[in-house]
């Protein structure tokens, strides 16, 4: 039997790629990433007023030399909403094939245009019998990739850095106290400091220069294998509050997660909803200068959501 195949539509942001790829793999499909591009005249139009027409995205580019007709079209983010709807209709009309189309995040348009819509519980509510709610973000990290390798139960901290976004600034002074606190904790044997794609390179280099204690190990490779290795060997994970995606990824480990507070520059109510949800689940605490141990149910929402989709097709 031929494997099922997915088209994954995003604008290319890593967080979105992680979500669509994770779901495609959990659905046990092969997949092709398709980068959505919008012409200038439609870049700023919300989906609800954008015509469902192939002139409003790079339709010709996406449908040139089709190697595999998709069984699923999985999209994430505002810019991929209309392409998902148009491409589903195109494949069903021209190839006589039933296509399940799935959108991750609030599509800002009626859910009736999709087979399934997946939204995080902390986001604004979306109505529809086909709407599935996730606790936090879906992602492409698998349980076996972050299986615990800290067999001696050493206190190893992995500090995962995000970066500035529309809700939070990200400066050296925001992290200075955290690094000083970690240096003062004598029971910590190793501190992995891992940069993400949004971590400013100048800031990361300054942290390396100022905090060059032998306990610190810095990684700015942006390689998934190094990121998952840091989660595997950690006893505790610290993550800056700007990234709900990375907090969601770390929750698959079942290890204590401390969130580093940053000063918000605009109303971050959805982040606060997320933090409350994850605190209520026993997954996170805010970092106050010391580390403690606790346990919680590992969170693997990608697997749970994919099962719901399979059961309802």
Protein architecture, described:
The radius of gyration is 21 Å and the shape is elongated. The strands form 2 sheets. It has a 6-stranded parallel sheet, sandwiched between helices. A 6-stranded parallel sheet has the order 9-8-7-10-11-12, sandwiched between helices. Strand 8, helix 5 and strand 9 form a beta-alpha-beta unit. With 313 residues, it is an alpha/beta fold. The chain folds into 2 domains: 5-134, Rossmann fold (3-Layer(aba) Sandwich), CATH 3.40.50; 143-286, 3-Layer(aba) Sandwich (Rossmann fold). The model has no long low-confidence stretch (mean pLDDT 96). The protein has helices at residues 14-26, 59-62, 81-95, 172-184, 201-210, 224-233, 244-250, 269-280, 301-312; strands at 5-10, 30-35, 72-76, 100-104, 116-120, 131-134, 156-160, 190-194, 216-219, 236-240, 257-260, 284-286.
Short description:
This protein is an alpha/beta fold and 313 residues long.
Average the pLDDT over all residues and give the rounded result: 96
Strand portion: 15-25%
- How would you name the CATH homologous superfamily of the largest domain? Glycogen Phosphorylase B
Can you tell me the CATH class of the largest domain? Alpha Beta
From the alpha-carbon coordinates, what is the Rg to the nearest angstrom?
21 Å
Structural class by SSE content: alpha/beta
Would you give the CATH topology of the largest domain?
A: Rossmann fold
Helix content: 25-40%
